[in-house]
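Task: complex structure prediction.
Instruction: return structure tokens for all chains below.
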Amino acid sequence: MTARLIIVNGGSSSGKTGIVRCLQAVLPEPWLGFSVDDFVDALPATMDGGLEIGPGGEVSVGPAFRELEAAWTAGIITMCRAGGRVIVDDVFLGGAKSQQRWQDAAGDVETVFVGVHCPPEIAAGRELARGDRERGMAEQQAYVVHEGVAYDIEVDSSRAESMECARQIAAHLTRT
Amino acid sequence: MTARLIIVNGGSSSGKTGIVRCLQAVLPEPWLGFSVDDFVDALPATMDGGLEIGPGGEVSVGPAFRELEAAWTAGIITMCRAGGRVIVDDVFLGGAKSQQRWQDAAGDVETVFVGVHCPPEIAAGRELARGDRERGMAEQQAYVVHEGVAYDIEVDSSRAESMECARQIAAHLTRT
Amino acid sequence: MTARLIIVNGGSSSGKTGIVRCLQAVLPEPWLGFSVDDFVDALPATMDGGLEIGPGGEVSVGPAFRELEAAWTAGIITMCRAGGRVIVDDVFLGGAKSQQRWQDAAGDVETVFVGVHCPPEIAAGRELARGDRERGMAEQQAYVVHEGVAYDIEVDSSRAESMECARQIAAHLTRT
Amino acid sequence: MTARLIIVNGGSSSGKTGIVRCLQAVLPEPWLGFSVDDFVDALPATMDGGLEIGPGGEVSVGPAFRELEAAWTAGIITMCRAGGRVIVDDVFLGGAKSQQRWQDAAGDVETVFVGVHCPPEIAAGRELARGDRERGMAEQQAYVVHEGVAYDIEVDSSRAESMECARQIAAHLTRT
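Output:
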């Protein structure tokens, strides 16, 4: 396995974070696990051109968000070049464009793209069950985040537990 | 103000995180706020050579921790070089050596070092009041993290609220 | 539906809390949702005769815990008698004895017992995925909490999502 | 000390929860610590006649909230009568009326009322520093919650740490 960066993409409440924790547990080397949520939490609480969530769970981001996100992304790539192995869970609100953004930043850092699928009605139920997310995000994002994205491996969290998804991903990594 | 990186150092429960949030609110530009706790949370839950907390709150870290920490630090510096402004709250368990580590990584990125002081008995009370930290860490770290460290500005969180400490730091930044 | 109290019993990481949130959402009247974890969080951080978690996830509780738990249980029953509808998620570490404790306290308050099953290997994976529970509890508790317990309705969280389990429970409640 | 119930009243971000944790640590017997926030968390996520927070941090509650709150309060009093010792942190949005509500429910259960004062500008700074509360609540509530309320003991969290406030309260309890 020569990959240094794993990008796990899926809609809100599709189960990405749990899959990342299981993946860290099953992979033989220590991998750092970050999330785009960590980046959002690092932003000032109020900010012009930042992130806004509409009444139906629509997420929109402004230019200041994009600038700082580019700096964050560059930092993640440096962590890989500096000897780290990094898993990032992200939400490709821009679909294929979001993937291109990571590919451009990664350059020759070997990257594996993982798609986490979950039907919108299942994700909406999980959003309600977890109780800490704005309602509507799960349904809004379930399909749009995968539009035009090319994956190295895809899992379906409505058909397999987080640990089983992690094992499928790990098996793919060791094969390549 | 030309600084791109602010390192806020203090013992556990000295009030660093609250000061960083206030600092993000009072500074005119958007600054990203990260913590060494974010790095610790990014590690696998169990890891050889990782971080251990002893029964009295003594924190010790192994070689795998140090390697990944170096990668994380390099990533933070890249975020500054790529146009971001970053505040990091850290705990200099190695005192002056920990500061040197940041200075070596930062190179020519303009860095401001902030010391957050809090007497051990006050920090221990806050540790108990917050209820989510291993008991004893506050007392263990109160003095040792400042040993041999040279600061650009120092605040005392037992004598001033987080917001007041943030204003003192912001005033220093705009003067320089 | 005349029930005033629903006791949801299952091992750690079997998915009880998510099922309770979904149940609150699908039931027509407002139900209060409490957990034995709320009671544990209400205890002093350190206490003689309290709750201890062993290295393999074994939970043991002392006499002071049992006395305060009896007071808490009596309080929950009063909430039902005073016009509230209450769902409690609990972990019957004592199996049939734990159920008897609730039955004795409830008296003539109409109570529905719900069993949440989840095979130990699945619960252990979820424990790892959520990342905030002592490892081993899920496996320790998966079967023992159901020993000798008589349920009004049982669900299996490894075969149905939280929302689907909640709908099964709600359907049972409206039938009776 | 014969009190069985301690009601700690203060505005949002005045430091009540930290004072309660310290009080549990310094009192010789085990006391249960609950908060009106626990009650709010027990409500269904969406509910007609529940709790709403306005854009400036104004909290308003409807009839369904009041009914369930009365049931919760009755349950707390039962916990005291059943042998428990209970500390509740509350926000007296109705001032003297909120106190009367507790007095009526408590009957002959010996109750101690504690007032936690904190100037609005200090509480607003702490609200920002903690980063997990709707902005504006601290300032809205700082004075109104104390209107017409009679206390057994009062503390000022802007002049003393949580632990020192707890010691003042504990000293009062042992004197009476």
